[in-house]
Amino acid sequence: MPRYALKIEYDGEPFNGWQRQAGGQPTVQAAIEAALARLQPGPHAITAAGRTDAGVHATGQVAHCDLDRDWDGFRLAGAINAHLRPLPVAIAECRPVADDFHARFSAMERRYLFRLVTRRAPATHDRGLVWRVGHDLDAGAMRAGAAHLIGRHDFTTFRSAACQATSPVKTLDEISIETRDYPGGQEIRFALRARSFLHNQVRSIIGTLERVGAGAWPPDRVAGALAAADRAACGPVSPPQGLYLTGVGYPDDPFAG
Q: Is the dihedral angle over the CA atoms 37, 105, 8, 254 positive or is it negative?
């Protein structure tokens, strides 16, 4: 059966996460599988690089699917998108791939972006797309706190108690923090990169760094929280709406070129 890689964008607000669930809960995976069933009758099971939580968005999620016949990638993307309307999900690109390509297990890195806006007024055009806080944040202090998390560590403190990963040890390759002007305030963008992440790891890190930026935590307290290897040492977990899966890296990127 021909295999296809899909690059997917979605607004996570109306979905109960990526993964298909019992009981008919709306999920991104279920929506795409239903669209595929309109093209090829029968059950479908697509596999994604990452299982994003409820409310989390994506601009570069990757999944693969197997179909009975050969499709031109451009035409397949258009056909799936036609059956996804009006849901806020789109197949941005589609490419045929080798049978051994696996969206999850072939991935070498995942990249996430978190958008945080500091202003007193509520977000309007970006409602549901950013985390808004009503106070200023010190980006320099947050960079100092984030520096303690770079590298290979036991991230028990920064993972959900419900995380099913066999080991809490992960290597965080990058946390960059940049600021930009935003009407009535400032937008702070956090870019994180690693081979893989624990459940709620990014949101736990962002919520903790927000406390550093607000002056409630000194930057060195992040190092102490990490060393504690205790979920109770973590700061608050950020809400999901500012988080985006922006890209997945592969040894042979199916979307390169």
A: negative
Please tell me whether 250 is known to bind a ligand: no
For the chain, which domains are there?
3-106 (3.30.70.580), 109-247 (3.30.70.660)
Q: Give the β-pairing of 131-133 and 109-118.
A: parallel
For residue 196, what are its two tokens? 């893989």
Q: What is the mean pLDDT of each run of 10 residues along the chain (257 residues)?
A: 96 95 90 95 93 96 95 96 97 96 97 98 96 97 98 97 92 98 97 97 98 98 98 96 97 89
C-beta contacts of 76-85 below 8 A and 24+ residues apart: 76/4, 76/39, 77/6, 79/39, 80/6, 80/32, 80/35, 80/36, 80/39, 83/34, 83/35, 83/38, 83/39, 84/31, 84/32, 84/35
Using a cut of 0.85, tell me whether the model's pTM lies above it. Answer: yes
Contact 149, 170 (CB under 8 A): no
* Catalytic annotation present for 53: yes
